[in-house]
Write a structure and sequence with these properties.
With 651 residues, this protein is an all-beta fold. The chain is built from two helices and 42 strands. A hairpin with a 5-residue loop joins strand 18 and strand 19.
């Protein structure tokens, strides 16, 4: 894509990229002209105007009905704005950009594209991005604000009052079905990541925004080199071998780790791979080729093999540790070389230097690795290579087995306590050890060698206690635990299908999950998470914005160019949906407007453009079919999701 005015600054560059990829569309005051199809504005509690996820939606000035803006709040305190209006000469125009926001204000450098033509003559290489000027937003509350503009493209300077027209709303993480979380980790900023069956990885950021960062939800292996959210992973809680032999096999949970650069690592167990998701959301494999074996020591990890990785942990030196469910503790050096740290000691040598079927691991500030293994204990693999048991009494054979499982020991030495199938560990900055004592349905803590319970009533499974003391709460087979920089404890409460948080004051609450299982990966039924921007990658430079409204209604707006290539165009309407199909029987194209201050809503003429029909294959892919009587012909365009507003997520 060519630019008539070279972009400056990260956000301007981002917007130029978005023009090649994104299609943001807007409804504005035109809705008020659609008579019986008026969208009911959802009331929002009046409050301070600090921008949050709820600001996503359509905004307009009631005194200038027929033009306005679509705003989308994006992650990382970014705001996208697209203004649909008319130029000073009276032609349709749309322009916008991405900027950052702080408090109740946002500033955006806007760009206006030219050079396009309608399907089938659209050529993205012909698009020229012209710097339009700046937009500055300030909000009095969640429903009222103002935009001030300063254009270098002949639109002058001025401002327009804003009132909310539509409210897409937000999707709370605690109201979303997440399935069965198996691993959880938190970064230094308080962003929480967790894996969940079926084969997805989610994020709840420090502001509470909920997103799916990896996994299409379809079990399998695919996607390396592409977007992690479109890739396939496979870490099932239940699988054939486990069903046939529940003694020697255990659920696979998709262990997680974050390195110092915030790259995310996933133990993609049933695929026999460790995969990396970089900060751009691209997934690659760092260890394993799908073959069930532990091999390749001394060579590059990319050529090595791993048998059902369960746990991953990154130290501050750039090394990555990996546990194999049926093998040793492996280490990938910062230079990419893989080696074995300690081997397998299942059987008579269980007290020796090694591990037996270790699960999710953690590493402390000096490089000591902590690993729960199948002997109902937690072992420490020290930086010097020695191995000791730090929790669980593995010296007392019980029931013919060479270890003690059960529940006992609170208030005493951790090495004399009994645990039941511990599945995960975490270490805080002070060296305290947290243990997901899965079979006992509680979280335990080892401090200065003494063990105690910090969450859950051990041996009492269930779901209860949110809002109260974590020690009085009920958990159900928690398989993951993490600890934040402020001392908060995060729990993958697996069989309750929730992620829970114990605050530093000891109170527990749910931060994600409503106790239900998410829809299958091929879920096609339209729901609020379908809201967002859609395009055809082969026709980058025009596309649609969809808003899923109440009462099974869908708003769609297409921003593009006319068949002659003389001007920008925008048109849209509201229809209804059922299952995965939506039909908009009346799509209108407005004309007759002029730019501020010469805009006159009474001069707007709505022309019947035609019809649109949407069919979705998933929450990320679909097709739009069109029929127009205004010279745009008929045809179709494949659709791929570009973005979702912050706060909405396809489960």
């Amino acid at each position: 894509m060519k630019s008539a005015n070279p972009a400056s600054g990260t956000l301007q560059v981002l917007f130029l990229a978005l023009l090649g990829l994104f299609f943001y569309v807007f409804l504005f005051g035109l809705i008020g002209l659609l008579g019986g199809m008026i969208i009911s504005r959802v009331a929002h509690a009046q409050s301070a105007g600090d921008i949050d996820n709820s600001f996503t939606g359509s905004w307009f000035d009631p005194a200038q009905g027929g033009q306005g803006l679509m705003l989308e709040v994006l992650p990382d305190n970014r705001l996208f704005a697209l203004w649909f209006a008319f130029d000073p000469a009276g032609k349709q125009a749309w322009f916008g950009g991405v900027g950052s926001y702080s408090g109740n204000t946002a500033t955006i450098t806007a760009t206006l594209p030219t050079g396009g033509r309608w399907i089938p003559n659209f050529d993205s290489s012909k698009i020229v991005s012209n710097t339009w000027g700046t937009l500055t937003f300030s909000f009095a509350d969640h429903d009222h604000g103002r935009v001030d503009f300063n254009s270098v493209l002949g639109y002058g300077t001025g401002g327009m009052d804003l009132q909310r027209l539509t409210n897409i709303g937000t999707q709370e993480a605690i109201d979303t079905p997440i399935g069965s979380p198996g691993a959880v980790i938190v970064d230094a900023s308080g962003n929480v990541y967790f894996s969940s069956n079926p084969d997805r990885i989610y994020k709840v950021d420090a502001q509470g925004t909920f997103t799916r960062v990896a996994g299409s939800g379809a079990s399998g292996y695919s996607g390396d080199g592409g977007a992690a959210r479109d890739a396939q992973f496979y870490f099932p809680l239940s699988y054939l071998e486990l069903v046939q032999d529940p003694v020697d096999y255990s659920p696979l949970v998709g262990g997680l780790a974050l390195d110092a650069a915030n790259n995310l690592y996933v133990a993609d167990a049933y695929n026999n791979r460790v995969r990396k998701i970089d900060t751009n959301g691209i997934v690659t494999t760092v260890l394993g080729n799908g073959f069930r074996a532990n091999g390749g020591d001394g060579g590059p990890a990319s050529s090595g093999t791993i048998y059902w990785p369960q746990g991953v942990a990154a130290d501050k030196f750039g090394n990555l540790y990996v546990t194999s469910a049926y093998g040793p503790l492996r280490k990938i050096l910062a230079n990419g070389t893989v080696s074995t740290v300690v081997g397998t000691i299942c059987g008579a040598g269980y007290l020796g230097k090694g591990l037996c079927a270790p699960e999710q691991i953690a590493v402390d500030a000096v490089g000591n690795v902590f690993a729960p293994d199948s002997y109902c204990r937690v072992r420490q693999v020290r930086a010097d290579g020695s191995v000791i048991t730090v929790a669980g009494d593995d010296r007392d054979p019980s029931g013919g087995l060479a270890f003690t499982c059960g529940y006992s020991g609170d208030g005493g030495p951790a090495t004399k306590a009994a645990m039941s199938v511990p599945y995960s560990v975490a270490v805080d900055a002070n060296g305290n050890l947290y243990i997901a004592d899965t079979g006992n349905h509680c979280i335990r803590k080892v401090s200065a060698g003494i063990i105690s319970t910090v969450a859950g009533k051990c041996t009492h499974p269930g779901f209860a206690g949110d809002g109260g003391s974590a020690k009085d709460a009920l958990l159900n087979n928690p398989r993951g635990v993490a600890v934040g920089a402020d001392g908060s404890i995060y729990i993958a409460d697996t069989d309750n299908s929730r992620v829970r948080k114990v605050a530093p004051n000891g109170l527990i609450g749910t931060i994600a999950g409503n106790g239900a299982t998410p829809p299958n990966a091929d879920q096609r039924a339209i729901n609020p998470a379908f809201t967002g921007n859609w395009f055809d990658p082969t026709q980058a430079g025009h596309g649609l914005m969809l808003e899923v409204l109440s009462d099974n209604r869908l708003l769609a707006y297409w921003f593009s160019f006319d068949p002659a290539g003389d001007s920008q165009v925008w048109f849209g309407g509201i229809g209804t949906y059922s299952d995965n199909v939506a039909t908009i029987p009346l799509v209108v194209l407005p004309s007759g407007g002029h730019w501020i201050p010469n805009f006159d809503s009474s001069a707007i003429v709505l022309q019947d453009w035609g019809t649109l029909k949407f069919t979705f294959l998933s929450c990320d892919h679909g097709q739009v079919e069109f029929t127009s009587g205004l010279g745009y012909g008929s045809g179709s365009m494949n659709l791929t999701r570009l973005t979702q507003p912050a706060g909405l997520v396809c489960p």
